[in-house]
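Because discrete structure vocabularies remain unfamiliar, it helps to consider an illustrative case, giving the amino acid sequence and backbone structure tokens:
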Amino acid sequence: MKNKGFLLIVISILIYTAIVSGVTYMVINPGDSVAESKEDSSKEKAGNQKDFEYSRQSFDESYNWIPLDIKLEEDKDTYNLQSLTTEAKNTLDLRSLSGHDVQINGEDVSGQDSYTFTIDEISADNNLTVTVDGNNYTVRTMPEEMEGYDYENNGAEDGYYYFTYESHIVKLNTDGEIVYYKDVGKAYDFKLNKTENGDIYYSYLVQNNGQEEVDGIGYKTTKAVIMDENYNVVDEVESLIPNKEVDANPLENHELIVLDLHHYIISSYYPKEVNNIPSDIDQNKFGSRVMAPTLQEIKDGEVLWQWQSTDYPELYELSIEHNDFTNEHGNYADYVHFNSLAIDPEDNNLIISARNMSSIIKLNRDTGDIMWVLGGKADEFGLSEEQKFSRQHKLSFLSDGTILLFNNGNVLPKAPYPVVPEDSPLHDKKEETSIMKIKIDEENKEVLNYENYPTGEFSGTRGSAQMLDEANNIVLIGWGSGENNDATFTEKNLSTGEELFVFYPKDEDDISYRSYKFDQ
């Protein structure tokens, strides 16, 4: 018994010594366990990134079939189609009607998984008759919610307009006829893309309800959808490709550049906490939450180039709207609000539109370095007060290097911060949108030519300008929010003011983020 008691005493002394040693070590080296925890977390994060794979899905034939979702159990005899075109074959998915006797326009299709057909006209007067077990159903070629639009053609050159209408992406010819539509929900930036090899791809950004936005920021989380020349989906991209600098984060709705199939420039609004804001700017001492525009050029699932605004602290002080870095007026500061980019054909670098800085910024496509700033607080080209633009959107290059942009012309901020006092004379100043052309000498930092075309309208958010005919100064204007304009878009001769084509939606509050025109 004595030996056992002695053994217990020895064990107790050893345990006590171990505990004291451990506590002493933690007091002397408090950061080691935290560092190990961070290291473990970092390893876990890296492991997650390795597990991420760029999803190049295989879209089998049935993926692009048009659902024929007739509810046999419901007392309903008229249906819309999700998608339709007069330019290619359409294939209806009949699998939901398996086991029933089915005829389409009198043709027996019973037992078939699908039915392929062509159609000459999309209109309220041209419908399909589907008979199921002897009961007739009308299937509209023109969805009911799309009927009732109006247009004016005053001599526009033949072509096709691309825009969103209600919940549809739409392609409309200059005769006012819809030649393609697809009900996708909330979509942005529907357009045609032609590769260097001459291949045609259509693309759009569609809101992805499975991805959540940060409240109070003017953007939507989206995925990019790419279709071939027959409107078949051939690729989708939902996220940034994660790497050492960024995690997987959903795309946003402002821009998508299609260089080729599986080769894109994508953009994302990246919520981030930063501690590199210059000390002379009011900020959250515990770290400021900002929205960091992030660009990636990706090809076959690999990142070729990446840029993130927060890597350039000099940009913080250029913000003029939504720039509360204390986070007292909002959870995140949307200090840049990227909304457009274009590739400079002269040197292959990029220019981006920073709406909340009222600036255009040129980026080196190899290094990401900021090459110059045009407009806003850090303007390097000596723009006069009359030449400055405000809260601009879509920008592009003309053949001689001139920059074309949609100048929204805001005087007051749309964001909750900064607050303009009620007695400020700014409240009495007229806000007007204009189309601007600015040609610059990049080397000598000079403006070589400047033209501004006031529209007499005001679009406080969104909008686009696309040059259609440089010789005759004809531009397609997408009105965006169009506060005092009922039209979705207008094809206009800027020199004469003549309106060559105007599209009016059934609901004047219906908004298309951008509008385009192409010859096919």
In short: Confidence is low (pLDDT under 50) at residues 6-11, 13-50. The chain has two helices and 35 strands. The radius of gyration is 29 Å. The first helix runs from residue 2 to 28.
